[in-house]
UniProtKB/TrEMBL annotation:
It is found in: Cell inner membrane. The lineage of its organism: Bacteria, Bacillati, Chloroflexota, Caldilineae, Caldilineales. It holds the Pfam family CcmB. One of its GO terms (biological process) is cytochrome complex assembly. Required for the export of heme to the periplasm for the biogenesis of c-type cytochromes. This is Heme exporter protein B.
């Protein structure tokens, strides 16, 4: 076979990347369409997030001199636990419907399945956070819609979704997945949680952007490590499902 020219090799690589992204999109679109019919994941996460915000508002309203002292922790705690509620449905619903085996047998790279699931989960998280931030503004009179807070929240959510989707796949066939997932997931999320709270606190305390970038860097590094490890382990984990 004749050797491909440089231009042909570039087109071949571009075609491969485009085909891969189409497979990622197909997995994500399948999940989003299923969620649009059931409204199970977003509905559960949003209801929990808003109810938790109200409970925290009632609990801290009379006991805290400045709401800025507690809002960073409240924001990230709610995102943390609301996310656990939604993540176990990422593969749990596939198991219940009996479609997980078909998904794994499809002619699709396992990493594409992972990224498609993660993309769908990221969309669910962002919808819930878009509802949560105005709710916290109303309850605590603290504006969290600041560029650096939104940046940190987005990067933190990307990392959370990456590691959460990976662990959701690993625990999907376990009978106690609803309790096992948070047990194995929350310790891994500790660096992300601490960095998110630190970044949010810096902004609310008006300490300047110089103190923000180290937190952004830690969250970005966490995200990079999560997805690098996910791509290394995804085939091994899929064999255990």
């Amino acid at each position: 076979m004749a050797e491909l020219s440089g231009a042909e090799r570039v087109r071949s690589r571009e075609g491969g990347v485009a085909a891969y992204l189409r497979r990622v999109w197909a997995v994500a679109e399948k999940d989003v369409r299923a969620e649009m019919r059931s409204k199970e994941v977003v509905g559960t996460m949003a209801a929990f997030a808003l109810l938790a915000a109200v409970v925290f508002g009632l609990a801290f309203d009379l006991r805290v001199p400045r709401p800025e002292l507690v809002v960073p922790g409240i924001l990230w705690v709610i995102v943390l636990f609301a996310g656990v509620l939604g993540l176990h449905r990422s593969f749990g619903s596939e198991v219940e419907r009996g479609t997980l085996a078909g998904l794994l047998l499809a002619p699709v790279e396992r990493s594409a399945i992972f990224l498609g699931k993660a993309a769908a989960n990221l969309l669910y998280f962002l919808i819930v956070e878009a509802l949560l931030l105005p709710a916290l503004l109303i309850l605590f009179d603290v504006n969290l819609i600041e560029p650096f807070i939104l940046l940190g929240l987005f990067l933190g959510t990307v990392g959370y979704v990456g590691v959460g989707t990976l662990f959701a796949a690993l625990t999907s066939r376990n009978r106690a997945k609803e309790t096992l997932l948070p047990v194995v997931l929350l310790p891994v999320l500790a660096p992300l949680f601490i960095s998110g709270v630190g970044l949010t606190s810096v902004i609310l305390d008006n300490r300047g952007t110089a103190e923000v970038w180290p937190w952004v860097g830690i969250i970005g590094l966490y995200d990079a490590l999560v997805f690098a490890i996910a791509f290394l382990l995804v085939d091994v984990i899929w064999e255990q499902i």
